[in-house]
Structures are given as structure tokens and as C-alpha cells.
Amino acid sequence: MTLRILPDNLINQIAAGEVVERPSSVVKELIENALDAQADKIEVTLIDGGKSLIVVEDNGKGMTKDELELCVERHATSKLDDDNLFHITQFGFRGEALPSIGSVARLLIKSRHKGSDDGWQIELAGGKKTGVMPAGISSGTRIEVRDLFYLTPARLKFLKTDAAEFGYCLDMIERLAMANPNVSFYVTHNDKQKLALNACQGEFFDARLRRLGEIMGREFQENALLINVQREYAQISGYIGLPTLNKANSLSEYLFVNGRPVRDKLLLGAIKGAYQDVLASSRYPYVALFIDIDPMYVDVNVHPQKAEVRFVDGAFVRSLLVTWKKLHIRKIFLRLLLKRNTISF
Ligand SMILES: Nc1ncnc2c1ncn2[C@@H]1O[C@H](COP(=O)(O)OP(=O)(O)OP(=O)(O)O)[C@@H](O)[C@H]1O
Ligand SMILES: [Mg+2]
Q: N vs C: which end of the chain shows fewer Cβ within 10 Å?
């Protein structure tokens, strides 16, 4: 066989293989784009667990006609101003999500830039794009993804039932909503409303707890204690539940690094350790912890779906967690049991 550079569409499909695993991956990419565009209202519409249709509509800054033309091209991004992969301040940076989605589904993007009177649309099917055309849309962006994996039946076969795929989508939306309490999220599935979270106003930690309560349950909200530890270039904040509130799996342990939902063994291990004296080893607590760390010290470019991060100084993060664990956990539980109020330290 001749050595050659593959055609663009094939390159995009290969990239899509990593980025787009199932409908929830598309939902994640589109919501992250909406958040990067400073939207404070995001509406998600799904049909058949997202297999037939995914629509994400936002009221963010929108795109100009030229930006719309470019946004479906591979490696086109507006998010890496200084070309520095260690100064990532937004969710996106690879410029890969939209062309990848457009290579494995039918993609329609409508957008109107803030301050502009005109909206525009572009379509992508089988990786081929149409010209940009005028579109009726109020300010913001609406992205429709139809017939995911219609060109790759093998991928389609790996998807689960509509209900299971919807479950993955909802879990992803809830995680992103937890990290963004000041944003409204509305979700419908097969024409039924499944989630309606109005933006939480007021002091940040209060707003965050209200949003966590809407997702993790009122009982968590009433039995949670504020954590807020700051050291050098990192902060761990969030809420931890009373040990009496526990379950048989770790699904209510939510972790975020710089606003990104992650599942990190180091952090999950630290939570287990923190609760080991107060919880049977077969039981798991309710926890939502947010690590905010100077982007210089965290590498998010280690996983195609950005579900993992690598800390430049893992020992430092571990020590931060140990501080939290050793010095405060007993005090916290004691106080919580006695007074049921929150403390900050
Ligand atoms: N909802 C949106 N509102 C405004 N601009 C958007 C929106 N979605 C995408 N864009 C624009 O399109 C570009 C390409 O989006 P895409 O998701 O493909 O890449 P990215 O977000 O830059 O990086 P990544 O591949 O890591 O997500 C973005 O950089 C942004 O400029
Ligand atoms: Mg993106």
C-alpha cells in the first residue's frame, strides 16, 4: 500500500472515535462550548436517548458568519490565545469537537453573534459542509445533532438502550450543572421535561449548595458541611455529607478539577481514607469536591474526553488532601453532629 496522508474526513472520523463515544459525549462537548461562550441558560433536547436527536441551545455570545464557517474545521479554536497548553482557562482547547461530531452525525449549527442583527447557519453531513446561509435565530447558538453514528453502524451497535443512553446524558448534564450553579439548565427527553434547574443567585457557596441539593437530594443539602481549604496555588472547596448519609456505591462522590467533572483515583482514594473511621468499607459517602488549581500546575491534555487530568505536582495535591483529611475531618463531623451548622477554615 502507498504511504499517504489520509483524507480530512477520515482523519475527523478517527478523532471522533476518541472524542465521541456515545450521545453523552456529544452532550458534554456542546454544553462545554455553551459554557465557554458565557451562556447562562442552556436547553438540551434529546430524542431516543440522544441517538436520533440532540439539540443544545444557549444564550451565549454566539458566532459571526466568518466564525461559523471556521468552527467546523479541524483544529479551529478561539480558546488558546497564547498557544500555551498550560494556560487553559476554558473547557475547550483542541478545536476538535465540532468537526468530529460532524463526521459521524448530521450537524446543523445556527448562531447569531451578540450585537448582530443577522443569524447564520451551516450544515455538515458525512463530513461535508454546506455554505453558510441566513438563519432565523435569536442571539446565541443552537446546535442540532441527528442520527449519531449513521455512517458507522459498528459504533451504533455498542450503544445501550435509549433509557440507558439518556441516563448517561442526564448524569453528564447534572455534573456540569453542579459546577455551574449560576447557569440555568433545562432538559427534555422524548418531549417530556426531565430537568429544570433555574440559575441559583446569591453568595457563591450558598448558590452551589442549593444546586448540589437539587441534584444530590435535599437530605444532602441539609446534612452537608462546607469545605474550603486554600494553599499556595490550589483550593479545595465543596460540601461533604454526614457519614450517616451513605450508599452502596461511589456514584454520589463528585469530583471537579477547575470546573471539569473528573474521576480521579487519587482523589477518590483520599475520600475513602477520610471516611474510613466513620463508615463501613462497603459504604460510600455523598461528597462534592471542587479542586481549583492554577492551570500551570495541571495538565488536562491527557485524555481525549478530558475526563482525566494530571497534576504537575501530585505530591502537593496529595498533601493538600491529607491536610483536609487528618486535621479537619473529625472536627467537622463532630461539629456537624453537635451543631448541624457549617464551618469554613
Ligand atoms: N455554543 C457556542 N457558542 C459560541 N461559539 C461556539 C460555540 N460552540 C463552538 N463555538 C466556536 O467554535 C469553535 C470550535 O468548537 P469545538 O468544540 O470544535 O472546539 P473547541 O471548543 O475550541 O475545542 P475542543 O475540541 O477541545 O472542544 C470554538 O473554539 C468556538 O469559537
Ligand atoms: Mg469545544
A: N
- 159 and 225 in a common domain: no
- CA 96 to centroid of ligand 2, rounded, Å: 7
**Rounded-to-integer distance, Cα 5 and Cα 137, Å:** 39
**Which residues does a 6 A CB cutoff place in the pocket of ligand 1?**
29, 33-34, 37, 58, 60-63, 71, 76-79, 92-98, 141
pLDDT digit string, tens, across residues 137-170? 998 999 999 999 998 888 899 999 999 999 999 9
Assess whether pLDDT exceeds 50 at residue 344: no
Residues 244 and 115 placed together within one structural domain of the fold: no
Amino acid making up residue 260: R
Mean pLDDT within 9-16: 79
Domain count, the chain: 2
What DSSP designation does 49 have? G
Q: Are strands 310-311 and 253-257 parallel, antiparallel or unpaired?
A: unpaired
**Chain-centre distance of CA 126, in angstroms?**
26
Q: How far apart are CA 297 and CA 257, in angstroms?
A: 11
The domain that holds 277 is classified in CATH as 3.30.230.10
Ligand 1 pocket test: which of 42, 98, 104 has the largest number of ligand atoms within 8 Å of its C-beta? 98
Residue 38 is assigned to a structural domain of this protein: yes
Whole-angstrom distance, CA of residue 213 vs CA of residue 323: 26
Give nearest CA residue, ligand 1 atom 9.
Answer: 33
Looking at the fold, whether 249 and 116 belong to one and the same domain comes out as no
Whole-number Cα distances in Å, 197 to 42, 46, 115: 10, 17, 27
Instruction: Indicate whether 155 and 45 sit together in one domain.
Output: yes
pTM for the model stands at 0.92
Structural domain containing residue 324: 218-339
Residues 6+ apart with CB under 8 A from 318: 266, 270
